[in-house]
Hints:
Blueprint (H helix, E strand, L loop, with lengths): L1 H5 L3 H21 L6 H18 L7 E2 L5 H5 L1 H4 L6 E2 L1 H7 L12 H7 L5 H17 L9 H23 L6 E3 L5 H5 L1 H4 L6 E3 H13 L14
Antiparallel strand pairs: 1-2, 3-4
Helix pairs in contact: 2-3, 9-12
Amino acid sequence: MxxxxxxxxxxxxxxxxxxxxxxxxxxxxxxxxxxxxKVTQGLKHEIDQLFKDFDKNNDGYLDRSEVRxxxxxxxxxLDTNQDGKLSREELEKGAAHLQPRRRPSDMVYVLxxxxxxxxxCNEEIQRVYDVLRKLDKKNNGKIDPEALQAARQQLLEERVxxxxxxxxxxxxxxxxxxxxxxxxxxxxxxxxxNKDGFIDRQxxxxxxxxxxxxxxxxxxxxxxxxx
Length: 227
């Protein structure tokens, strides 16, 4: 929540500045013949506001003592000529670098921000909390690595179980070529690592584990449990 509250004052101006820079940069990429004119026009208002708010001595520059927040944090990067102050040109060129780094965990902040919409939002936040709390096996406020690994394996097992339930029509515990559908059918030969004409639970688990870890499936490698 603090992250949202912090986007006020100077940070809000910088956020707007960086978004404007990205938007204009995208437009410039779309039209290579267009020079930096569009970028300057898109950022001019935000840069003017920054100087109006923080250029206390009205010298046309922002020195380190005048800036705060993200500008202060990235001062060295923005001050390309290392003269100890930021010019309009330096802010214009460096604005795109001030965009906050997006992280997958930011989805929690999105849910919190939307939590006043209806009961469904509260339920989603509660669900996230319940899942994370189960991973804190030692009750010390930290994610237990072993619990996380076990939860990951459980999710893979459930996913494979759903696939078998949907495709294994004759209930023999494996998927034949005739039963396969979609991606299972398309990648049948690669998934059937023991080349017996069927895809069993262990072969599906192996493929799901490799996909989750980012590994490239090796058709010559045997699935767990194969002899």
